Amino acid sequence: MKLITEVAAETGIHEDHLELYGKYKAKLAPSLWDEIKGRPDGKLVLVTAMNPTPAGEGKTLTTIGLAQAMNKAGVKTVAALREPSLGPCLGMKGGATGSGKAQIIPADEINLHFTGDIHAVTSAHNLLSAMIDNHIFQGNELGLDPQKIVWKRVMDMNDRSLRSIVTGLGDGNGTVRESGFLITTASEIMAVLCLCDNLADLRERLGRMLIGYDREGQPVTAGSLKAVDAMTALLKEAIKPNLVQTLEGTPVIVHGGPFANIAHGCSSVIGTRYALKLGEVVVTEAGFGADLGAEKFMDIKCRQAGLKPSAAVLVVTVKSLKYNGGVPKSELYAGNRAALIAGLANIQRHIKNLRKFGVPVLVALNHFEGDSQAEIQEVLAACRRLNVPVAISKAWAEGGAGGLELATALKKLLSGSDTSAYAPLYKDDLDIPSKIGKIVKEIYHGADVAFSPAAKRSLALIERLGLSHLQVCMAKTPYSFSDQPRLLGAPEGFTVQVRDITLSLGAGFAVVITGSIVTMPGLPAKPAAEGIQIDREGTLIGLL
């Protein structure tokens, strides 16, 4: 592992612009932006994937391996990734720093606490929560209706028992009311941190956040509560991007971590902008399948930040194709040509969707040891029929060298005549139901949208408050194009059930909650935490 000062120097960053967190991690100081902001931007490449399955697609490791391979191929490349959340790391997913020879390091530190950014978001969010209840307790000058407080509390852990709680129980402890917890990565503050341009924009966005309604039904924001400066103070270090490296010394900016199925699922705008000034190519990712992550990357992050992606890489695997073709997880290692062919409909849908944003597409077939040559050839032939370039990635086993085929294909795509004509899917001046309908029909291929009574009340409120200009952030299962996790492949004709719509005014979007999606995940029957051990030297085992 190189010293982070060496990685920075090789990237063109002087040590004066680093705020060191030990030998192998650093934050990038605002002074660096002052030095590099006049440089031309590199090319932005999104890595996304087919719908995730229990077999794992390897989107993050492909992002890391591709960045390593591009540097090996002579293209100065920087990766931009999200920060792992403790809840999923200790719950179902385990570590979120790649694997094999395509990892970012120091992996254990990045997965557990890192530089404290997520904890800062937790503290800022819960400060506001405490100040809301204290304001009511101390006389309620703003006339807040205790039953219409929409700001909950957060923690960075999967804990289903905290989804719904009652606060204020006991004498002298304030107003008794129903509330609950979100996971920190679902906090609007995380979304605001990842979408803001600078500290001043962060402060302004924090002030716009909706906390509830007064007794007259008028919205009350965080700015009304005089909490914003203290919240900004808690976030003043967290707004600075973090610099780490891959196993091969490729620079990686890791910053921010909004959930992809609940929030917008992309690393920070600030971190991406730093990366674009430091590299000829920036490889970034968006969470879960392209129907969630890529759609939000294109429709929310790129729109708000004025970013123009040059290409999209769609990660697929043989096993995931068979799973989407109806094969259970226990039988994925066995050959099944019929299921593989059936599962190809899933990637065909994603390719078609990505092209709707005007962005050239490259398919990355993430290679696993058990893949047969016949299965691989079936996928390659299908991509040729779809007129989409495809390359095999062996980054897990071979690192950058194993990603050279993919890097070569990406270089060709970026230099070819099929240039990006990026445009969002919908225009801001559409009303909220029309935006939702456009996503459901054009990206998910559903037939209709059904709004619950609660969702209809939310739509009426949005209309009354003149907030139809907001973008929409779909909170949906990642496992299916639909809102039904078990409806695999490329389903059509379904109706998406919208349970409710919440307002994230600081982030600039309305969160559309569909199906059975929850904003506080639970732990599985065997949490990943059970497999983590630490030896006498303090080395972690079982996190990745």
From TrEMBL:
Its EC number is 6.3.4.3. Belongs to the formate--tetrahydrofolate ligase family. The lineage of its organism: Bacteria, Bacillati, Bacillota, Bacilli, Bacillales. It comes from Paenibacillus durus ATCC 35681. It catalyses: (6S)-5,6,7,8-tetrahydrofolate + formate + ATP = (6R)-10-formyltetrahydrofolate + ADP + phosphate. It is an enzyme of class 6 (ligase). Pathway: One-carbon metabolism; tetrahydrofolate interconversion. This is Formate--tetrahydrofolate ligase. ATP binds at residues 53-60.
